[in-house]
Design a protein that fits this description.
mainly alpha
């Protein structure tokens, strides 16, 4: 019972921390990486419902690496990438001048 509650606590912590990074997951590399890691974790957990795949050390290691990636702090984005993204998202008004 204690082991099961610790496992559930671990999963809750991982998914809460990952959910905090998924606000704009399509716009940042950190968000996309978090989404991919979460999908991998969910895939392994769903597969674990029908099979005992986490008893294989390589599968367990992969699961914990994906959990660490999902729950880690967001990646720092370079200043240049932020400026380029900001300029590509701004829409400048088009001013038409009358033809003479």
């Amino acid at each position: 019972m204690v082991g099961f509650s610790i496992a559930i606590w671990f999963l809750v912590v991982v998914f809460r921390r990952a959910a905090a990074k998924l606000k704009n997951w399509t716009e940042t590399a950190s968000g996309a990486l978090t989404m991919a890691a979460l999908l991998g974790c969910v895939g392994i957990l769903v597969h674990s419902l029908l099979d005992f795949n986490l008893q294989i050390p390589a599968n367990a290691a992969l699961f914990y690496v994906l959990c660490a990636i999902a729950a880690s702090a967001p990646l720092q984005e370079s200043q240049r990438r932020r400026v380029l993204r900001r300029h590509s998202l701004t829409i400048e008004p088009v001013v038409e001048t009358p033809a003479t």
